[in-house]
Amino acid sequence: MNEKPDIRHLNFDQLQNWVLENQLPKFRAQQIYDWLWLKNVASFDAMTNLPKTLRQQLAEHFEIKKIQTQIIQISKDKTIKCAMKLFDNNVVESVLIPTQTRATACVSSQVGCSLDCKFCATAQLERKRNLDYQEIYQQVYFIKELAKEKYHLNLTNIVYMGMGEPLLNYNNVMKSIEMITSSDGLGMSPQRITVSTSGIAKMIVKMADEQVKFNLALSLHSAIEEKRQQIMSISKSNTLDMLSNALNYFYEKTGIRPTLEYIMLYEFNDSIKDAEALVQFCKKVKSKVNLIEYNPIDHSPFQRTTKERLQNFTDYLQKKNIIVTVRRSRGQDIDAACGQLVNKNLLFAN
C-alpha cells in the first residue's frame, strides 16, 4: 500500500491546481490552505467550512502528519519543556521560555544530532533524521498556543536552538522560516527569529548570499582553537579563521551583527586568558557576545562556572568595549539542557 502524500507538502499553487483538476471551486484552495497553516489542524474533519464530501476526498488522497505532546515539564521559573512525538514515533524537544512580556519558542531541527559537542545532551543521541519543515512549523505553532493558554502571552521570538544542527537541515529550516514569516502562516517578523549554528562556514556564506533577514548566532564556546576542537569536533574542519571570515561576509551582505554564544564551563573556558582570546576574536568580527550559564548533563565532565568567575569574565569583556549579555539558566528544576528530556526518557523510536 502506497503512503499518501502529506498535504502540507503542496504549496498554494499546487493545492489550487489539485482543486481545479477535481472540478472544485477555486476558493476552496485558500480555505484548505488556511486550515493547514493559519489554524494548524490535525485532521480533515476539522475543516468545518468544507463540504463533507470534500473532506472525505482530501482524506482519500492525502494525510496530515501531525506532532503530539508526549511529556510536558513545567519549571518553577515558568519555563515549559515539551517532548514532541512525531508521526513516526521519534521524539524531539520544544521549549517555551516566558518572561513577563515576552514568550520565546526554542525548536528542534533534527531528531538527535550528528555532531558530538562534549557539553551537549543531544550529542549523546544518534541522529535519526532531519525534521520536515512542517514539523518545525508545528512546534512553533504549539508553543505559540501554549504561551497563550498558560501565560496569556503572544509569541514574540523563535530560536532554532533545540535538538540538531539547523544548517545540516538547511532547506527545511529555510522553508519553515518562510512559512513562519508568511502572511499565510504566522506572519512573524524575521527579525524575531534566530538560527543558532555550531559553525559551518560554507552554509553561513550561503545564507549571506541569500541575504536572509533573520538573526544568526554562532556557538563559539572558546576562541582558542585547541580548546574549541576539544569540545566541538566540527571546529577541526571549520576553523576560527574560516568562521570569522564567514561571519564578516554575513554581516557585509545582510547588515545583521551575529551573536557569539559562549557557554561558561568551570575552569575550562572561563579564565581571563580565555576572555582575552574572545576579545581578540571579537576584534576580527563585528559581533556581540552572549555568555550562557551551563546546565550540567549526565556523562559530561563539565560544570557550571561560579558567579564570581562569570562576573570577572563579563567585567573584562565590558572594559574592552565588547557588547555582552548574560543568559541566565532557565528550568534548572526540570531537564533543562537541550536533549536531556529525550535522553533521560529514551523516547526515540526503535
Give short descriptive properties of this protein.
disordered C terminus; TIM Barrel; DNA polymerase, domain 1; alpha/beta; 10-stranded mixed sheet; 36% helix; 2 domains
Can you tell me about this structure?
By secondary structure, this protein is of the alpha/beta class. It has two domains: 7-61, DNA polymerase, domain 1, CATH 1.10.150.530; 68-345, TIM Barrel, CATH 3.20.20.70. The protein has eleven helices and twelve strands. Strands 1-2-3-4-7-8-9-10-11-12 form a ten-stranded mixed beta sheet, with helices on one face. α1 crosses α2 (27-37), α6 (201-209) runs parallel beside α8 (240-254) and α9 (272-284) packs parallel to α10 (307-319). The model is unreliable at 339-350 (pLDDT under 50).
Helix proportion:
25-40%
Task: Give the number of DSSP strands.
Answer: 12
**Count of discrete alpha- or pi-helical segments spanning 4 or more residues:** 11
The CATH superfamily of the largest domain is known as Aldolase class I
What's the domain count? 2
Distance from N terminus to C terminus (CA atoms, Å) equals 22 Å
SSE order:
HHHEEEEEEHEHEHEHHEHEHEH
Q: The CATH topology of the largest domain, please?
A: TIM Barrel
Indicate the proportion of strand residues.
15-25%
Instruction: State the secondary-structure class.
Output: alpha/beta
Label the CATH architecture of the largest domain: Alpha-Beta Barrel
Radius of gyration: 21 Å
Largest sheet: 10 strands, mixed
Shape: elongated
Q: What is the topology, as strand order, of the major beta sheet?
A: 1-2-3-4-7-8-9-10-11-12
Nearest-integer average pLDDT: 91
CATH class of the largest domain: Alpha Beta
